[in-house]
Design brief:
CATH superfamily: Immunoglobulins
CATH class: Mainly Beta
Shape: elongated
Strand content: 25-35%
Helix content: 10-25%
Structural class: mainly beta
Radius of gyration: 17 Å
Bound molecules: calcium ion
Order of helices and strands: HHEEEEEEHE
Strand order of the largest sheet: 1-2-6-5
Distance between the termini: 31 Å
CATH architecture: Sandwich
């Protein structure tokens, strides 16, 4: 997928944290340049802005009906080209023992949006009625960003 509208899929559009953060005041990955409670690293990975007040990164769990059956659907935004961050949805039934969502869910949709952000959706395979209580989180990892 290309980051730019009318871009060139297959051509590298890798951004890199250092280039993205270069204009920020407080550019460390663990800093919060705009003071909105989201670390720069999170804003970089999930496609929100770190230079002013804006809505939090988009992360949502909702019900999706498929042929009359309710399933849990998790959707979140990712910055296209932030390939130095791995975003892994995880699920838990008791806020512990987190398991990567691929065990329970399938990635069902990736839609490119405006501003270099794509929206990714995962749907659980087991109907919500059979699943019981559950929680999710996004695990963000990077092997490239040097945290202070
Ligand atoms: Ca922030
Ligand atoms: Ca922000």
């Amino acid at each position: 997928m290309s980051r730019e509208l009318n871009g060139s899929p297959g051509r590298s559009d890798w951004i890199g944290y250092a280039a993205w953060a270069a204009g920020l005041i407080g550019l460390g990955a663990e800093e919060d340049a705009d003071g909105d409670g989201n670390l720069n690293f999170v804003e970089y990975a999930l496609g929100s802005r770190a230079d002013g007040a804006d809505p939090r990164p988009f992360v949502r769990a909702e019900t999706e009906w498929v042929e009359g059956v309710a399933f849990v659907r998790l959707s979140f935004d990712r910055r296209i080209g932030a390939d130095d961050v791995v975003v892994t949805p995880q699920w838990s039934d008791a806020l512990g023992n987190w398991v990567n969502s691929t065990v329970f869910c399938d990635r069902v949709e990736v839609v490119a949006g405006a501003d270099g952000v794509s929206r990714e959706s995962h749907r659980c395979r087991v109907p919500a009625a059979q699943q019981g209580k559950g929680f999710f989180r996004l695990k963000l990892t990077s092997g490239f960003i040097a945290l202070p």
